[in-house]
Amino acid sequence: xxxxxxxxxxxxxxxxxxxxxxxxxxxxxxxxxxxxxxxxxxxxxxxxxxxxxxxxxxxxxxxxxxxxxxxxxxxxxxxxxxxxxxxxxxxxxxxxxxxxxxxxxxxxxxx
Amino acid sequence: xxxxxxxxxxxxxxxxxxxxxxxxxxxxxxxxxxxxxxxxxxxxxxxxxxxxxxxxxxxxxxxxxxxxxxxxxxxxxxxxxxxxxxxxxxxxxxxxxxxxxxxxxxxxxxxxx
Lengths: 111, 113
Known about the structure:
The complex is a heterodimer. Chain A contains no helices and 10 strands. By secondary structure, chain A is mainly beta. In chain A, the strands form 2 sheets. In chain A, strands 2, 4, 5, 8, 9 and 10 form a 6-stranded mixed β-sheet that branches. Chain A has a 4-stranded antiparallel β-sheet with strand order 1-3-7-6, with no helix packed on it. In chain A, a hairpin with a 5-residue loop joins strand 8 and strand 9. The radius of gyration of chain A is 13 Å and the shape is globular. By secondary structure, chain B is mainly β. Chain B has strands at residues 2-7, 10-14, 19-27, 31-38, 44-50, 56-58, 64-68, 73-78, 87-95, 102-103, 107-112. In chain B, a hairpin with a 4-residue loop joins strand 7 (64-68) and strand 8 (73-78). Classes of the chains: A mainly beta, B mainly beta. Chains A and B meet through strand 4, strand 5, strand 8 and strand 9 of A and strand 5, strand 9 and strand 10 of B.
């Protein structure tokens, strides 16, 4: 596709369940980023993948959060044992040479 | 370390009026600076970026921003607001040598007829 796509667009889950959020970056982009957008918190960096290098996980808020990127393309962000404070919009971005292109996000609601 | 402060979580203007959205940054090295816009239920779209070339940067939709090192500012302006400019605007900084962006908390621009 022409842009970054994310699925699902909306996800409602119950506290304690695990969720997986998917990001399809722009074809050929070597860098992929995950951000979290919460009310009143702005955008928080979560994790960054660059090519085959070890990811920068410095923004992950707890060990319940993890992400992987398979084949240098699609990425999955997994949140285990979801909590209500995990409710937010999760944004994915990709880039080739600095400028980041964002997907529409996944709105996660934890009941 | 790098950080961004956006003054005002909400800014209201009338259609046709000047738009001024404020952004101040903190960076230990010369920064790269960005303004993004987010329309409801959409991702972020790059408006403009400063990468150490011209200090006055022109972006899309008639927006521009001026990098002022002495004031550590990168305020976003548009001479005449349009109803379609109503959105949330985010300022972001990236230090050279790093790839991740640090965002401000955003400013919601409201445009009234």
